[in-house]
What does this fold into?
Amino acid sequence: MSQQTLAEALSLTSGTDGSLWAQLTSDFSNAPLAMDPTRGAPFGGLMAALAARAAREGLAIAPPLQTLTVQYLAAARFETCAFTPTLLRGGRNVAFARIDAGQPDRSALSALATFGTVSHGETIKPLSAPLTPFDALDATPVDPALAPWFTRYIEHRFDGGPRLYQQNPVTDPTLRLWMRTTDHKPLDELDLCFLLDGIFPSYMTVLPAPPIISASVDLRYDFIEPLTPDTSPEGWAVFQFTVRDLGGGWALDDGIAFSPSGQPLALARQRRKLAPRRPPREIAPD
It folds into this structure.
C-alpha cells in the first residue's frame, strides 16, 4: 500500500448531516518506528489540524484562527473519521465553533475554535526567539526506537541536539529546535497545528531513560500572528518546548513557535496523562 501524503491526510470530504470525513491511516501513527504502527493511534497534531480545518471549511469561516482547544476523549481508530463542526456564534469580527470528531461507538475528540479578524491598535510583543544560525543546527535524526511514525513527515534541526535523558537540567528543561513538514511548502495554519505537537515531550530531556509513556488529554493553541506565504516560504518554524510540571501521573508543558525571522507565531500548552509504572519488585532475602 502506498504511503499517504500529508496533503491527503489533512484533506476532508463532505459527508452527511454537515460532517466532514478524514481518512486516518497508520502512516500517522504515534507508535515508535520500531513498533507496528497499528499499535498506536492517529497523531494528536494531525487530529488538531483536522479539527481546525473542519471548522473553517464546514462553516465557511474566513478570519484567522485565534485559539484552538482540543480534548482527546479516546484514541481514534485507523479508518474513516467524521468531524462535525457547529457554529456557536458568528459575528462580523469573531466566530466561535465547536468540533466533535469520532467513529461509530467512539467519540475521539471535542474541540473549540475561535476565529477573529485582525485590526490596528496598540501592540506589545515581549516574546523573542534566541535564534541559532540555521547552519549551526544539529541535523541528527531522532532515535527510531523513540521517534513515532508520523515524524517521517517532519524535518527536525535541533539546537544542541535532542538532549534526551537528563541532558537538560531541571533549571532549563527546554527543548529548542527548528521544524518543517517534508513537503517544503510555505508554512500555513494547518502545518503549524501539526508541528506544534511534532516532537517528543520535553520532560524526556530531564528524566532518565527509559521514557515515560504518555497520552495527550488537553491541547491548546493560541495563534499570535496570521500566517501568510511570506511568513516562512520554505516552511520552517522555530520552536521551544518547556516542561512546566510533572507529577501525580500528569505532565504539563508549554511551547512557543516563531518564524525564521524571530516573529512569534503561536503558543501551545499540553496536558498529558502518564502511563502508570509498576514499583520495583522487592527481592526476598535468601
